[in-house]
Amino acid sequence: APREVDELRVEGSGSSDTPNWVLKGVELEQRASELNLAFGQFSKAVTERAERKSAVPFVFVAKMCDDATAKSRRGDVSALFQAGDKSSVIGLADSDELIVKIDSVAQMNEISNRLQDYNRNSYALSCLETFWEFQPVVETEKDESTYKIKLIDFQDYETNIAMQRLFERALTARKIAYKKSNYTSQFPVYRIEMEPQAILDGLYGDDAYEMLFSIEPMPRYIVSLDSIQEKTDVGVINPTDGHRYETLGILDNGIAQIPHLAPWMAAKRWTVYPESAISPTHGTFVAGVALYGDICEGKEWVNHGGIKLLDATVFPNEKEALEEDELIANIREAIKANYENVKIWNLSISVVRPVCDNKFSDLAIALDDLQTKYNILICKSAGNCSNFMAGRPKGRIHEGADSVRSLVVGSVAQAKGPDDFAEVDNPSPFSRVGPGPEYIIKPEVSHYGGNAGVDRSGNLVTTGVKSFSKDGDLSSSVGTSFSTPRIASLATGLYQELEEAFDPLLLKGLIIHSSTYSDNLQIPMAERTNQLGFG
Questions:
Q1: Which end of the chain has fewer CB atoms within 10 angstroms, the N or the C?
Q2: Mean pLDDT for the chain?
Q3: How far apart are CA 274 and CA 277, in angstroms?
Q4: Reported confidence tier of residue 360, pLDDT bands at 50, 70, 90
């Protein structure tokens, strides 16, 4: 059983003397002088904002030394910028770059005094290298016209609300059309059909410019399904009366009401799209793997005994790219409408951008917020990569797969054809690799999702896993999209065997801790977690 309280820390041990990384004497005095000089450059800007009574705090970046990024040392640095009982450190621009706000001239003077009192603040000064004014991150793409704007999170509810109002007022005054989406309750994103430089030029010199965090292209999400079709000889199974079946939510492009799936479907589908716009190819295949995965393959890989399915059509078809803000809004509404009855969700969507080392993606932040708010578990695909076709190394997991709370799933090969690259029970050639940001282990686990390779003519060949097409025929396809529903259905089956309240962390822990590596695995020990997670 999970512990009710798990908050104890392992106390550090060792000498109580000053650590050897703390500067002393002339070195400390020189560091303090350099930092004072860098910090003094902010005086004019902070004073100018105070004189015009700007509500926007001044924001700067504190660069930490390369050997001083340990989290245990951030406390000393935060104390240097403390304002009363509140920390002024509001985020990270990079793993070694702290984002700090200044609310007043008095706070600026107080920080300046601490920098001069270098003997008392030697720990913090030894960790810092320099300061510079924060500038918004701006990314552009050729032929891209849709961008998303994020504001600085000042880590204060009232300040953030006030900044959003000021920003929206500035956009309206300049007749800049926008659409606001709340990725989380504290995290709004503004969608604008306008070139970034035009946005910057339009806002420059205004308070709205000073609260910008980033402007970047609005990501688009796509799915793919390359399948071959054959008539099915898989028999239809039906639920047993009186048996408890939990429901797995399929966040996808719809599930066709084919005979094999219809008896297991929740009575009401969730979608915002008209029936004429929906082409339920990918979602039907995913649902078929979740329910009939073992039967189609003639193996006992999951053996859940049957689960219910909810069709949550959050995008209409795999041929159209869906912009990020619309996708997140659809996922949020689908979960909000069904979370009381559906506790486990499958999200098999490939994203166009790999994760970064030093920040979590906006989609991941939104998924984590949903799981926290509604006490649910999302099983997320790691993403597919086609680099193997050009003889290049695999790419990193895609955005969304860096969700901390989600159970992220990679793919391994269940069989090997003549031209396939992967041996059985080894990572599929297309399965993207970890780690996630800040070296978190992603994916956590893997399952069978197919194999692939290149023939002598340079053409793609695949050995797929089986499921159903939207017409009810057997199909074959490959991808982490189809390893993920095996884990999602495993979690759902496990939940319906437990006679206790739903606990996503317990289910995630049981699955991770019962995973293992195959005896056939041929990759180095040090690479296993990046490729397969825990097994």
A1: N
A2: 90
A3: 6
A4: very high
| pLDDT confidence tier of residue 226, bands split at 50, 70 and 90 | very low
Q: Give the Cα separation of 188 and 494 in Å (integer).
A: 36
How far apart are alpha carbons 62 and 93 in whole angstroms? 9
3-class DSSP state of 130? strand
Of the candidates 359, 481, 298, the one whose C-alpha atom is nearest the C-alpha of residue 91 is 359
**Crossing angle of helices 43-51 and 105-116, rounded to 10°:** 160
List residues bridging with 214 in a β-sheet.
137, 150
Question: 191 — phi, psi (to 5°)?
Answer: -100, 125
Tokens 């999970």 map to which residue? 2
Range of lowest pLDDT (22-31, 198-207, 220-229, 250-259): 220-229
Q: List the strands of the sheet with 228-230, edge to edge.
A: 228-230, 474-477, 465-468
Cα gap 313→209, rounded to integer Å:
38
Among the listed residues 521, 282, 257, 310, the one whose alpha carbon sits nearest the alpha carbon of residue 381 = 282
Taking the model in full, what pTM does it have? 0.85
Confirm if 408 and 431 have CB atoms less than 8 A apart. no
At residue 228, the pLDDT reads 45
| Closest listed residue to residue 465, CA positions, set 418, 415, 403 | 415
Note whether 439 and 471 are within 8 A (CB).
no
Overall average pLDDT of the 209-231 stretch: 73
Report the 10 Å Cβ neighbour count for 341: 12
